[in-house]
């Protein structure tokens, strides 16, 4: 337990010490929030879909959590390069606990970022349902676990950061754009609709949005189950791949 | 006589390349043992196999009475290690690096708190304990790694080129601490170095590995006598030849240099 705690604590300390990273990873969601929020707000309202900020804000929160999580998982690569990973791998602690401590730490960091963005959306005019806050947080945390584990799985297989932009551009970005974070998934062309349905991130976006705004395409319990399944699946895959790292 | 390390017929193959070729040796409890060899000879690979980081392709290793392959947790608790490459967390302070290690090794805080004070004083870093490691010089980092390796009272300490890149003052200091611990606490020390006079001075016994095979072992005096050399360096050259190794470790060295640059 203590070992998991110290690994978790390390992730948090590193996060709070790197203000740069904190701001850098908030910049992109903020850009999306304001560019899309002001750009499409009026179009959205004219189409009769209501207030765009109410729709967009949960999507931006999900985006922040997802990107920060993937990044936290990928951090294992820099630990490999800086050699610190070896220190944890020769310690008398099971690989599973190491992976778990790191993942919980990374997921916590991602949730903190999500909460910061959430507070910013309030300033930007978002009026969430207070009763849904708790549920939204549960969705955020599951999303964070899922993608931190996903990042861990990828990082276990890579030896340097060179592959990282590829992962972001060809995996994370498409997942994001096809998740309904920016636009409603109902009424999309068939192929896109299918892709959105196959994308696990869609259920996180839908869950968070459903909780905060009351707008959702699937049922919240369905979102919950899908997300829980993916979070556990990737924790398992991440742990298995992490176990096989040889120093 | 009790052995701290017993290595039997250990080999390691990377694909078709044999990095370590059927080595066997023992290190007695309380001994200071030097493992010498040219670049790419297989020293680091051997240490990784002795310390659970790498699985041997064949052969067995017993460390402090534990079978390394089967009892990895007990094995890990019983040794300390200073890696050839840096292994500190640069974003944490010296104290936090120590504390992290203590918790990972299950040392209770009533034990580790005074121990950290003692060790950081020993390596003369106590007044820098709250500074981030990224602001340390190479020598300070090395001293911190050595202190960390000793934190959980290991019975065997592995040191892979511990004095690489250090000035003579720091080198002497480090060997002084380690010899002291060896005498007082009966710590077994297994180290590699490319400084032959260092090995001659501190090691009670030496093994020389070349192309993955152990080609000679004995006390420094025995090796010098056997090769009719005046110094251990001459003995080493007589045994391993004077050719520079055109091994395939270029890429790994590249990575090490990169690491060093990054850590600046
Ligand atoms: N993961 C690996 N994959 C492939 N080859 C490897 C790997 N690790 C080591 N080798 C090779 O095994 C050989 C022995 O390497 P090792 O690092 O053990 O040498 P060393 O004796 O420690 O050398 P040095 O004095 O330069 O540190 C080298 O030829 C190296 O290229
Ligand atoms: Mg080496």
Gap between N and C termini of chain A, in Å?
25 Å
Number of domain units of chain A: 1
CATH topology of the domain at 24-44 and 154-262 in chain B: Rossmann fold
The largest inter-chain interface, given as chain pair and residues per side, is:
A-B, 24 and 35 residues
What's the level 1 CATH class of the domain at 24-44 and 154-262 in chain B? Answer: Alpha Beta
Largest sheet of chain B: 6 strands, mixed
* Overall pLDDT confidence of chain A: 89
Counting DSSP H or I runs of 4 or more residues, the number of helices of chain A is: 10
Q: What does this 3D model show about the protein?
A:
The complex is a heterodimer of chains A (247) and B (264). Helix content of chain A is 79%, strand content 0%. Chain A is mainly alpha-helical and 247 residues long. In chain A, helix 3 runs antiparallel to helix 5 and helix 5 packs across helix 10. In chain B, strands 6-7-8-3-9-10 form a six-stranded mixed beta sheet, sandwiched between helices. A four-stranded antiparallel beta sheet of chain B has the order 2-1-4-5, covered by helices on one side. Chain B is of the alpha/beta class and 264 residues long. The interface between A and B is medium-sized, with 24 and 35 residues. Bound molecules: adenosine-5'-triphosphate and magnesium ion. The site of magnesium ion has 4 residues of chain B, from helix 1.
What tags apply to this protein structure?
heterodimer; A: 247 residues; mainly alpha; 10 helices; globular; B: 264 residues; alpha/beta; Rossmann fold; 6-stranded mixed β-sheet; 4-stranded antiparallel β-sheet; 24% strand; disordered C terminus; binds adenosine-5'-triphosphate; binds magnesium ion
Set down the secondary structure blueprint:
The complex is a heterodimer of chains A (247) and B (264).
Chain A: H1 2-17, H2 19-46, H3 52-82, H4 84-89, H5 95-123, H6 133-157, H7 164-177, H8 190-198, H9 200-213, H10 220-243
Chain B: E1 3-14, E2 17-28, E3 32-36, H1 43-50, E4 58-63, E5 66-67, H2 72-78, E6 79-82, H3 94-104, H4 109-122, H5 138-150, E7 156-160, H6 168-185, E8 188-192, H7 196-202, E9 205-210, E10 213-218, H8 220-227, H9 232-240, H10 250-263
Parallel strand pairs in B: 3-8, 3-9, 6-7, 7-8
Antiparallel strand pairs in B: 1-2, 1-4, 4-5, 9-10
Helix pairs in contact in B: 3-4, 4-5, 8-9
Adenosine-5'-triphosphate (ATP) binds at residues 14, 17, 19, 37, 39-45, 84, 247-249, 252 of chain B.
């Amino acid at each position: 337990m203590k070992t998991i705690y110290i690994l978790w604590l390390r992730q948090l300390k590193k996060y709070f010490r790197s203000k740069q990273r904190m701001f850098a990873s908030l910049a992109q969601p903020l850009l999306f929030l304001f560019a899309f929020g002001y750009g499409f707000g009026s179009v959205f309202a004219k189409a009769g879909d209501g207030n765009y900020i109410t729709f967009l804000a949960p999507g931006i929160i999900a985006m922040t959590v997802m990107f920060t999580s993937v990044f936290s998982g990928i951090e294992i690569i820099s630990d490999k390069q800086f050699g610190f990973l070896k220190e944890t791998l020769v310690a008398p602690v099971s690989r599973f606990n190491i992976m778990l401590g790191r993942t919980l730490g990374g997921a916590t960091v991602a949730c903190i970022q999500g909460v910061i963005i959430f507070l910013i959306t309030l300033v930007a005019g978002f009026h969430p349902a207070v009763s849904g806050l708790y549920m939204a947080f549960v969705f955020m945390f599951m999303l964070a676990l899922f993608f931190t584990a996903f990042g861990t799985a990828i990082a276990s297989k890579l030896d340097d950061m060179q592959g990282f932009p590829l992962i972001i551009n060809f995996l994370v970005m498409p997942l994001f754009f096809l998740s309904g974070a920016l636009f409603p998934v109902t009424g999309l062309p068939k192929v896109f609709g299918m892709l959105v349905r196959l994308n696990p991130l869609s259920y996180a976006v839908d869950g968070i949005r459903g909780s905060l705004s009351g707008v959702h395409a699937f049922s919240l319990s369905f979102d919950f189950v899908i997300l829980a399944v993916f979070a556990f699946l990737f924790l398992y895959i991440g742990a298995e791949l992490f176990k096989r790292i040889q120093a | 006589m009790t052995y701290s390390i017993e290595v039997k017929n250990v080999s390691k193959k990377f694909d078709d390349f044999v990095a370590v070729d059927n080595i066997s040796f023992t290190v007695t409890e309380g001994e200071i043992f030097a493992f010498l060899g040219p670049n790419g000879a297989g020293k680091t690979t051997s240490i990784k196999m002795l310390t659970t980081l790498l699985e041997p392709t064949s052969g067995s290793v017993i460390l402090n009475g534990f079978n390394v392959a089967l009892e990895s947790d007990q094995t890990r608790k019983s040794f300390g290690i200073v890696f050839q490459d840096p292994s500190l967390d640069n974003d944490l302070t010296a104290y936090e690096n120590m504390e992290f290690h203590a918790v990972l090794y299950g040392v209770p805080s009533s034990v580790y708190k005074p121990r950290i004070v003692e060790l950081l004083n020993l390596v003369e870093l106590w007044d820098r304990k709250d500074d981030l490691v990224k602001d340390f010089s190479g020598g300070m980092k090395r001293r911190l790694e050595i202190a960390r390796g000793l934190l959980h009272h290991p019975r065997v300490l592995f040191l892979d080129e511990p004095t690489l890149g250090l000035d003579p003052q720091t080198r002497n200091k480090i060997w002084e601490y380690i010899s002291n611990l060896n005498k007082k606490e009966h710590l077994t020390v297994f180290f590699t170095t490319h400084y032959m006079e260092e090995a001659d001075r501190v090691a009670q016994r030496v093994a020389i590995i070349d192309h993955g095979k152990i080609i000679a072992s004995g006390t420094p005096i025995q090796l010098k006598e056997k090769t009719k050399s005046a110094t251990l360096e001459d003995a080493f050259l007589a045994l391993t030849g004077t050719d520079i190794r055109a091994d395939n470790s270029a890429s790994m060295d590249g990575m090490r240099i990169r690491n060093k640059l990054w850590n600046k």
